[in-house]
Amino acid sequence: MSLFTPETIERVRDSADIVEVVSAHTDLRRQGERFVGLCPFHEERTPSFSVKPAEGFYYCFGCEAGGDTIKFVQEKEGLSFPDAVESLADRYGVDVEREKEDPQAEERRRRRGRLGEALERAAAFYEATLWETEKAAKSRSYLAGRGLREETLRAFGVGFAPSAWDSIVVAGQRAGFSIDELQAVGLVQKGRKGGYYDAFRARITFPVRDVRGRTVGFGARATTADQKPKYKNSTEGELYRKSRTLYGIDRARGPIARGGRAVVVEGYTDVLALHQAGIEETVAVMGTAITSDQLKLLAGYAGEVVLALDADRAGREAMLRAQRVSGAGKLRLLVCGMPEGEDPAEMLAAERGEERFRSLLAEAVDLPVFHARAILADGELETPAGRDRALDEVVPVLAGMGETITRQELVTEIADALDTDPGMVGRRMAGARPAPAPPAASQRAPLPAPRSEGGDPGPEYSGEGEPAGGDGDPGPEGGGGAPAVRRRPTTEERREDAFLAMCIASPATGAEYLERLSEEHLVGERARVALPWLRDHLRDPLAELPRENEELFAEISRLTMQAEREPAEEAAIELSWLMLERARLDRQINHLRRDGGEQSKETVELHRERARISDAIATRSG
Ligand SMILES: [Zn+2]
Fold first, then answer.
1. What are the CA-CA distances from residue 176 to residues 118, 179, 182, 184, 238 (Å)?
2. Staple partner for 530: which of 300, 480, 555, 619, CB 3.0–4.6 Å?
3. Beta-strand relationship, 188-190 and 231-233
4. pTM over 0.90, yes/no
5. pLDDT, tens only, 560-598
6. CA 267, 273, 279 angle in degrees (round to 5)?
7. Distance, CA 608 to ligand 1 centroid (Å)?
8. Could you tell me the distance, in angstroms and rounded to a whole number, from the CA of residue 38 to the centre of ligand 1?
């Protein structure tokens, strides 16, 4: 475990400008000491999201998302805690210091750092070669011919690997890297006679970067027709795992998070062309198959993934595979029907291409609909036996869909195609098992677990250090941070929060009421967490609030924000107090009833007291 020192985390919190960080995701305007805007975590039309720059935290009254800058980056940009800290540290120029780590972990991290540097240097070398050498002239004109502008190519670090056998072998070693290191990142290969040579020669290179923009490998395209294969990727190694990487994710993650949608294509140039056209939520899979890890990564940013893969058989299979590996995830998978034999880059290079692509995107259909149509298209619908087979195949698809209008319409469409009535399809569906079942449990993309208690903050927030993985290789993406599922507060919790917030808003009166409040008045764990702190710090609850205690920090910052919004006259506090008192009595009465003491003197007394409180509530609220 490589823990950051507490000073590092504190410096990151102090240096990062929370208004600036949040503003990348929603427009904020100043309102007194805070900034307000539409919540970037839930859909809304009137702003209930606030940022308090002085204290360095944000809070949403609608969905109760809240935390500091690091938490925001974790949740909104889908980074693990260490990645969020490092990314903010990079951005705000904070030196990262770590606690002493065990020698093995330190060695692994040091090695990863060196391997990463070897890749960055190679990327810079290839890029310079593309723009500055005569031998890359043909490649430059090829790229220009595909409609790709220099600024786009530079943004993605596209380069050219010269045809010499030893450019990297020589330059890499001269820069101090060992052959072993160069081989470990797939830059050089071992020949049959034992010598080493450059892995990429006479190819256009596309650096593959992780979420944070660090190069982890390369994709390289042939520049002549006889070069095989047409695309050559880095061999998988310590930094590069094809199944966990999405080309373009470093540049697409922001737009994906903002728009809630990702577009998945197949090729490097497709990504470049789409970004250039302003469809910046685009990433590419390495090869045709999309994996559960890739979908999990995307689920950290978006609720919708549009697959715009080739219309050929392989592309279709890939899209159907996506349905299998997505498991029971909440990710909505859609398919954008690309015309056969035309990829997005080609389409965009043609006249009105962008317009055509955008309308294809707008017409994307849910994956099951696409699947069902594919079955019908392949079926022999001329014979009753063929129609029966098609029905057998399509029924499990429908059964896996859930009761939606989309499904209902699809049933009608299928019945039409099979020359039968929707009732027949419906009856078959009722007896069917949902399909297709994931081939193996391990391939299923796990959902973020709902939080068990107390709302914020989730357990992963305290998970500092290396992302989970255990084998010491967390993969290039370093563990995604799917936004946590927040539990809605109960009526009781809301009532308790309102009371505590009013006490903060009018501390003089509030202090008296807090004296009278006991633990018995509170059911919500969150209010119980806040109470002892508020008793001692009611006048300025945020002043000495310890950041390390995240649960307390979350509760107090939430209540303070609420207090600022809701004025509290004494009558309102009184009424709120009475409600808590009545709820307490109700719980006591129920408790006695369960124990069979319904007729006891105590119960009678409690009922009398309850009636008195109810009257008081009626008078005050009337
Ligand atoms: Zn919200």
1. 9, 10, 10, 15, 19
2. 555
3. unpaired
4. no
5. 888 887 767 888 899 899 999 999 998 888 888 887 766
6. 105
7. 42
8. 8
